[in-house]
Amino acid sequence: MTEQMMNPVSRARRLARGVAYGAPALLLVVALVGVDFWPFSAYRLFSTVRSDATSSQRLVVSYGDGTEQAVSCVDHPVLRETMRFVPRLPDVDARTRDVMLGTWFADCNIDGADVVRVRIDKVDRAVDPVTHVTTETALTTVWNEVL
C-alpha cells in the first residue's frame, strides 16, 4: 500500500478538496442550465418582496360568444416569464404577436381559434396584516387587442 492511501489526513484533504471544488461547480452548472433544483437554487422562493401590497398580471381572453376566461400569470411559468414583453406588443408585427399569443395560449391550455379579444390586466392587491385575507384594490388594463 502507498503511504498516501494509509494516511487518513491526506484522504480527508482529498475529500475536502472534492467538496470545496464540487459544490461551487454544481451551483455553477445548475445556474447555467437554468433549472430550479432545490436546495442548489431556490431563487424563486426568495426573489420577490413580500409586503402588504402586491401586484400581478393576468391574461384575459374573450370568446365570440361573449364569455371571458382570466388566467393568472403566477400559475403559468411561460406566461409569467414573458410578461416583460407586454410593453413592446403594440409595436411588433402581426406575425411576432401571433407567435407570442400562440405560446401563451398553449401554456394556458386555451384554444385560440375562438378567441376574439386578448388583454393583460395588472391586478393590485392588499393583504390584511391580521387576517391575511387578500383583496383586490385596483385593476388596470395594460394591453388590449381585438384579434
What's the short version?
The protein is of the alpha+beta class and 147 residues long. It has five helices and four strands. Strand 1 (53-63) and strand 2 (68-72) form a beta hairpin.
Short key terms for the protein model shown above:
147 residues, 4-stranded antiparallel beta sheet, 4 strands, elongated
How would you sum up this structure, described in words?
With 147 residues, the chain is of the alpha+beta class. The protein has helices at 3-6, 8-33, 43-46, 77-82, 94-108, and strands at 53-63, 68-72, 115-127, 134-146. It has a four-stranded antiparallel beta sheet with strand order 2-1-3-4, with no helix packed on it. A hairpin with a 6-residue loop joins strand 3 and strand 4. The chain is elongated.
| Alpha-carbon Rg, integer | 24 Å
Oligomer: single chain
| Major sheet summary line | 4 strands, antiparallel
* Derived structural class: alpha+beta
Helix count, DSSP H or I runs of 4 or more residues: 5
Q: Per the principal axes of the C-alpha atoms, what is the gross shape?
A: elongated
How far apart the termini lie comes to: 78 Å
Contiguous uncertain segments of 5+ residues? none
The proportion of residues forming helix, as a percent range, comes to 25-40%
The number of E-state strands comes to: 4
Can you give the mean pLDDT?
84
